[in-house]
TrEMBL record:
Protein name: Uncharacterized protein
Pfam family, one: 2Fe-2S_thioredx
Keywords for the protein's UniProt record, in alphabetical order: Iron, Iron-sulfur, Metal-binding
Keyword Iron-sulfur belongs to the record: yes
MF GO annotations: iron-sulfur cluster binding; metal ion binding; NADH dehydrogenase activity
Database matches in PANTHER family: NADH DEHYDROGENASE [UBIQUINONE] FLAVOPROTEIN 2, MITOCHONDRIAL, NADH DEHYDROGENASE UBIQUINONE FLAVOPROTEIN 2, MITOCHONDRIAL
Amino acid sequence: MSLRLLSSSGTCINMLASLRSVRPSLSALSACFSVSFCDDTELAHMLGRYPDHTASAVVPLLLMASERTGITDEVIAEIARETGSKASKVSAATDFYHMLNRHAPPKHDIKICTSPSCALGGSEALLAEIQAKADICNEGIPEGDALLVGVGECECLGACCSAPAAMVDGYIKDHLYMGDLDTIFESCC
C-alpha cells in the first residue's frame, strides 16, 4: 500500500506501509509537519492511522487540540491543511461536538447535566452555585489565560436514574446535592 502525504510546501512524499500497520517513517516526515498543538511524531502517527482518508483524522486531531491548547482559528486552519479538508468543515465539526474547547482548557473542568431528569433534580440551582464558587477560584486570573476551574452545561451524561449528575475532570458524579459542592471544590481550588 502506498501512503502519500502532502507537506505544507506542496511537495509529496510517497512511502510504503504494510497492510497490517500503517506507520510511515517518521524521520522522513519530520520536515513536512508543523502544527502548534502536538509534535511532528504525534501528527504523523495520527495521519498514518488514516492513510487513504486523512480527513478521518479531523475529529481525533480536534480532540487532541481541545485537550491541550483549545481550538483557535489557527488550529482549525492547521488541521484543515494537514488533512486536506476545508477549514469550514473542520470548523463545523468543532461546533457540532460541544465537548470540544474553543479556549485554553481549564485545569479543572465541571460540566453540569441540564437534561430533563437532572433539571427536575435541581441541576439549575447546582449550576448557579458551582459558577459562583468557580468565579471565586478564578479571581485574579488574567483574561485569555487558562482558568483554574471551568464550568458549563452539557447534555445527558447517562445518569438519569441518579440525577442530578455532573462530569468533573472527565468523571461522572451523580446524586449531587449542594453539600457535595464543597467536596468537589476542595480538590479543585
